[in-house]
Amino acid sequence: MNQLLKKTIGYLLIVLIVFFAIISLLAIWDIINVQFIFRKIFLSILTIFVTSLILYFIFSTLFKSDK
Description:
The chain is mainly alpha-helical. Helix content is 79%, strand content 0%. Helix 1 runs antiparallel to helix 2. The chain is elongated, with a radius of gyration of 16 Å. The protein starts with a helix and ends in a 5-residue tail after the last helix.
């Protein structure tokens, strides 16, 4: 379970980073207007990260393996 959770969080962060990079490239080439998009993306990533951290803590505390 621990490995699956780590992989899932890792893939989620990878997807978010790729999404942020695509938005950044589009903004550099003036294809989209990024007046408030960067703030929203940053707050979204921060929220997802904090939520993932809390969920990881809960899962690691409640579902400890008896090795």
